[in-house]
């Protein structure tokens, strides 16, 4: 296992969608292991492949219930080609990002999601996630689509701004 370098904004690989994978071969399984080690060393609760300069749809998240228990956590989820099938209950989530040093903002997320992805045994899995793992999954899925918190925040600000204008209107 190895700790990989994390790329930071505005590196171009963070700003464009990654490509789906055909299957987890030995090389990609090792990449996923290295991503888990890199995430833990940071420390963080999730990491997307383009954050370590690989333009493929692979992500890892911690399955710890909250940030407090994350340091003792030994359970992780590795996923490729992820999709959200269903999301319920929008909440505001205060998030940082390993690729955006010293940035922390609230963004809207689903509290509960049903997801589909390719697992490391090359099987399509469907799974329900909630709480921190659900938030982390959505954050990493954004990365894999070339979206960072900055995209989320600017949209929100635009929306709030329009609302404010309408009130004044
Ligand atoms: Ni991030």
Write a concise synopsis of the structure shown.
This protein is an alpha+beta fold and 169 residues long. It has helices spanning 26-41, 132-144, 149-168, and strands spanning 46-48, 58-62, 76-97, 100-118, 124-130.
| Helical percentage | 25-40%
Structural class: alpha+beta
Query: Ligands in the structure?
Result: nickel (II) ion
Q: Say how many strands there are.
A: 5
The helix-strand sequence is HEEEEEHH
* Contiguous helical run count: 3
| Total discrete domains | 1
Question: Radius of gyration, rounded?
Answer: 16 Å
CATH superfamily: Peptide deformylase
Q: How is the main sheet built?
A: 5 strands, antiparallel
CATH topology: the name is: Peptide Deformylase
- Mean pLDDT across all amino acids: 91
Q: How much β-strand is present in the residues?
A: 25-35%
Characterize the structure shown.
It is a single chain. The chain is α+β, with helices and mostly antiparallel strands and 169 residues long. It has a single domain, classed as Alpha-Beta Complex (Peptide Deformylase). 29% of the residues lie in helices and 33% in strands. It is built from 3 helices and 5 strands; from the N terminus they run αβββββαα. A hairpin with a 2-residue loop joins β3 and β4. It is globular. The mean pLDDT is 91. Bound molecules: nickel (II) ion (NI). The site of nickel (II) ion (NI) has 5 residues, from α2.
Secondary structure layout plus pairing:
Elements: H1 26-41, E1 46-48, E2 58-62, E3 76-97, E4 100-118, E5 124-130, H2 132-144, H3 149-168
Antiparallel strand pairs: 1-2, 2-3, 3-4, 4-5
């Amino acid at each position: 296992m190895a700790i990989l370098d994390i790329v930071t904004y505005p590196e171009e690989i963070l700003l464009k969608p990654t490509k789906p994978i055909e299957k987890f071969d030995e090389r990609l399984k090792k990449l996923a292991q290295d991503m888990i080690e890199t995430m833990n060393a940071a420390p963080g609760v999730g990491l997307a492949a383009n954050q370590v300069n690989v333009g493929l749809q692979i992500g890892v998240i911690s399955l710890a219930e909250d940030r407090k228990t994350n340091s003792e956590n030994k359970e992780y989820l590795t996923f490729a080609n992820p999709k959200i099938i269903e999301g319920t209950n929008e909440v505001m989530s205060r998030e940082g990002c390993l690729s955006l040093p010293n940035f922390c903002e609230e963004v809207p997320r689903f509290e509960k999601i049903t997801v589909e992805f390719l697992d490391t045994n090359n099987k399509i899995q469907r799974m329900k996630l909630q709480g921190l793992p659900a938030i982390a999954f959505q954050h990493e899925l954004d990365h894999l689509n070339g979206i960072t918190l900055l995209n989320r925040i600017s949209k929100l600000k635009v929306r709030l701004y329009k609302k404010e204008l309408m009130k004044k209107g």
